[in-house]
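Moderator note: this is an archived Q&A kept for reference. The question asked for a predicted structure of one protein chain; the sequence and the answer are reproduced below.
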Amino acid sequence: MVSESIAPTIWSKVGIVAFWLALVGGSAEVLRRRVPSQPELVRKVVHIGAGNVILLARWLQIPAWIGISASILFAAVSLVSYRYPVIPGLDSVGRKSLGTFFYAVSIGVLIAVFWSVQLPEYAVVGILVMTWGDGMAALVGQRWGRHPYRLWGINKSWEGSLTMAIASYWVCALVLLAVQGNIWQTWCVGAIVAATAAGLEAFSRLGIDNLTVPIGAAALCYGVNQLWLVA
């Protein structure tokens, strides 16, 4: 049980995170009302905005149990929303997807794994690759995608996939740069993670990429980086 002397500090941190998520949700709702013809844009505002909460969690040193509990709660809400449209900003795109559920699950899994070994930077890499890579890929692909391709029945564009790779590269490289500095591993690991994330994002049936991209990116970043650092 958290002592009374510590509890106010913890809950003030939770309050900051909750405020950020409320700000993201409020902004998305305003956007949904003003541009009802752009539901995917609203989804990606939430997708990118909410994903950045991992930076707050890392900065504020939010305990793992809080992050895991929150992910379980949001996963449950998303499952209800999959059947009943209780989250207008996420349920107005005219297609069924478990992406929001996988999004919440991936955050919980990565926090559980990397918070426990005191390596939160890899959870940050995984979530931000999903957040910025996938989010920007969708927006660019839909707006400027002029060279489509089809993979396992899923329509994608080369412009979107390239955006996914570029965004993933810079996310990974910048996080590692902040943690381990300007060494060759920082930039090479970023390239490997970027190529892999772009490949995983290409298969996104039912939103499964919101699970495979962050977990795959985080695991690969950790594995390759640790291997090269030891070597």
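Archived answer notes: The chain has a mean pLDDT of 85.
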